[in-house]
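We emphasize that the prediction below concerns an isolated chain of 479 residues; any contacts that depend on oligomerization or on bound cofactors are therefore not represented. The input was used exactly as deposited, without trimming of termini.
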Amino acid sequence: MSRYLTTTLPYVNADPHLGHALEFVQADALARTWRAEGEDVFFNTGADEHGQKISLAAEKAGQDVQTYVDHYAEELRKLRDALNLSTDGFLRTTDPAHKAAAIEMWNRCNAKGDIYKKAYTGLYCVGCESFKTEKEIINGKCELHPNLTLEKITEENYFFKFSKYSDQLLEYLSREDVIVPGWRREEAIAFVKGGLEDFSISREKKRLSWGVPVPGDDSQVMYVWFDALVSYISTLGWPDDKDGKFEKFWTDGKTLQVAGKDQVRFQSLMWQAMLISADVKNTDQIFYHGFINSGGQKMSKSVGNVISPYELVKKYGTDATRYMLLRHVHPVDDADVTWERLDEWYTANLVNGLGNLVARVMKLAEDNLSGPIPLTDEDAAVEPGFLEMIHSFRFNEAMDLVWEHIGKGDAFMTEHEPYKKLKSETEKAEGLAEIEKLVRHIAKVATHLVPVMPETAETILTAVKENKKPENLFPRLSA
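Result of the prediction step, given as a token string:
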């Protein structure tokens, strides 16, 4: 089966944050798992580079906007190497091919009669880059950006007939697996049943020039969300599809989008309505993860609790960073991460856990076995339960399962003490057999780590094949 997987495209108005890393690593674990199962996968990330926030940020930084977005797009692109992501595409919304696709989407929706122009007065949130409805305003503030003041703006914009698609969206949302977790689907259904309002899809060029021009109207540019959402299919070559990727991975394949919990309205409603209007297949499934806080507060530069993914990789290494994001950050609920907790997780579970077990077992094997142990198909088999957990986005439970096996290896070593039996002629054969069993055990652990901690898995399997103790997998932290 062909599978298409995309993260959201982070906004390039700041350095990448830990939430981006979480989303990318979750998606990468899925992509690697599917490929290991023989699936043909296209895994996409990218950079969302248009909109008012970016224009204002560039102005504040005293930079040309294109220079500004080039810098931050490159910072995002660097995450591929820093986190060892197996991506196939990196889409920038400033790419000419993407701009052409956004224009095609506009023209198709317009041909359906779903775009119209009207004067509008409303409360606008710069953080969301959208006008807010009454139900999205709490105590006079945007529920997602309570620290920003809503601007009362009157202008003439183009609108998309969102309200026209209520019934079709409810039909789309009737499939239980269309959104994970299930309560986000209920949230989307409630939003539709509460009444959809047509939404603005353009801005006046005199107020915002940084965007894709509206076809046939030089006074307007596309609203950033209308433009950015199209990236999920423009990265596959839509609409021309010269290489056949769109047909293979979107039309005929199974599609999955990964996004943060604040994206439900945009990804599962607005984007899906646009696809229906343009006669393009809807997304098969969307997975929404939670947020990462620190010290009980949202990460913020002003609070001083921001944790950069690059800082994590520098301190702990790539695979350790992947481990902590997949095991210790809940897949769908909000999680709290601090440097103290990160140090604890790293030391207890990687240095003293996996790293120590591998070092002890392979030292015994190198010193006492006559040569490498040939691994069997059983040694290289992955438990169905592990795969099912990954498939159902329960990354933390999948990691827990692996660490249960690590714990069993430690317990076996403590209970049987094979190193003591090697000193006795009558027990030596039994001790060697137990060492072989432990080697097979850590090979089994490594097989399960392939999609989640690929470099560590490769190091362990290489050590087993060469019958040599590897360098310390996870160095102890300096005081």
